[in-house]
Specification:
Length: 173
């Protein structure tokens, strides 16, 4: 069995991330990352442009901001995975998602463009993980004051997308 097909142990991530990792189906996480993005893109591309700035409550993000958050988060989680896979032991800071959303310009772009950007980011993420050797998948580093493995980061990326796709379908549509 390859490292990408082994679910991370609870010792490889903070308990907070269990909510994402638990959503990822058993099997090779690279296959999951490849197939699930198609489902998310199909959903996003089926939405009319008029919903892009819709918020289901005044203090919630718009549809575009949710998609932008998915893009930002995947980039940050993948950057952590890259650094740890390359054995960079530098502790990495966390990030405040609300500050990122507040300081973004996601609502100024068509939802279709954000969907294309999400697709490009995912393709990059897949290449990153696909080209790692077995040893890289098991390396760990410190991010947001907690140890996390490269494998766990791949699962977090997959589960984070599933989490936000569910939010989009249950709260926005």
């Amino acid at each position: 069995m390859t490292a990408s097909a082994i679910r991370p142990a609870k010792s490889e991530f903070l308990p907070y991330y269990e909510r994402y990792i638990a959503r990822v189906p058993d099997g090779d996480v690279l296959s999951t990352l490849t197939t699930q993005i198609g489902e998310t893109l199909e959903l996003l591309r089926s939405l009319p442009a008029s919903v892009s700035t819709y918020r289901y409550a005044p203090d919630k993000w718009s549809v575009n901001q949710v998609v932008g958050h998915m893009i930002d988060s995947e980039r940050l989680f993948a950057a952590r995975a890259l650094r740890f896979a390359r054995n960079d032991a530098t502790p990495l800071p966390g990030f405040e998602q609300d500050d990122y959303a507040r300081n973004s310009t996601f609502d100024a772009y068509p939802l279709s463009e954000l969907a294309s950007e999400l697709e490009a980011v995912r393709q990059s993420t897949i290449f990153l993980f696909r080209h790692m050797d077995e040893q890289a998948w098991t390396r760990r580093g410190v991010a947001n004051n907690a140890e996390v493995s490269v494998r766990a980061l791949a699962y977090i990326i997959a589960g984070h997308e599933l989490h936000h796709r569910e939010i989009l379908t249950s709260h926005y549509l």
